[in-house]
Amino acid sequence: MTSVQPRKRIILAITGATGANIGIHILQTLRRLNVETHLVISKWGAETIKFETDYNPAAVRALADYSYSPHDLSAPIASGSFRVDGMIVAPCSVKTLAAINAGVCDDLITRAADVCLKERKRLVLGVRETPFSEIHLRNMLDVTRAGAIIAPPVIGFYTKPDSIKDVLDQMCGRILDLFDLDARNFERWGGMKKGDT
């Protein structure tokens, strides 16, 4: 008798930092991998989607299995009794990083992140800012000590990307690796071959 594995269930938050396409690409990849998605887009995340991409927020919400208002603190993902495999905030603004680190649960994104930390679920923050101030670095260190993983979307030049899609595939694939999800759409490092040096 074979047991059917339940679908993985991931919360994705898109905040107002630049890089809205990162969150959208993760959402599309999770859909392709048949992962149940619970999406929250912040007010400024919605504005950034409109400014940086060819999508509108409604079209992005339609890619998710479930979507919530950032003001809805009665949503299922606001409770530790709602079972999830973890949460990704991508892109994660330094404002959101600071609020999560301080335990400020004044919207659904920060509350869901707080729940993941207290329930010891994986919380991955794709922090998008450069350069980092000492305040940003302290917040990243402190939230890491609390159990989160800081995974800034960084280009892997060893893949020799030809397009923004190639860059997004590698960035998003590396984030999904943290949930033991293989996106199967980017080249992994295989070591240098003779003649490469």
Number of helices: 7
The proportion of strand residues reads 15-25%
SS class: alpha/beta
Task: Briefly note the CATH topology name.
Answer: Rossmann fold
Order of SSEs, N→C?
EHEHHEEHHEHEH
Share of residues in helices: 25-40%
Proper CATH architecture: 3-Layer(aba) Sandwich
| Rg, alpha carbons | 17 Å
CATH superfamily: Flavin prenyltransferase-like
Largest sheet: 6 strands, parallel
**Multimeric state:** single chain
CATH class: Alpha Beta
Q: Provide the low-confidence segments as ranges.
A: none
Overall 3D shape = globular
Number of DSSP strand runs: 6
Query: Termini separation (Å)?
Result: 52 Å
Structural domain count:
1
Average pLDDT figure: 94
Main location: mitochondrion
Enzyme class: transferase
Organism: Coniochaeta ligniaria NRRL 30616
Pfam families: Flavoprotein
Characterize the structure shown.
It is a single chain. It contains seven helices and six strands; from the N terminus they run βαβααββααβαβα. It has 197 residues and is of the alpha/beta class. The chain has a single domain, classed as Rossmann fold (3-Layer(aba) Sandwich). α1 (20-32) crosses α7 (164-177) and α4 crosses α6. It starts with 8 loop residues before the first strand and ends in a 20-residue tail after the last helix. The model has no long low-confidence stretch (mean pLDDT 94). Belongs to the UbiX/PAD1 family. GO terms for molecular function: carboxy-lyase activity; flavin prenyltransferase activity. Dimethylallyl phosphate binds at residues 158, 174.
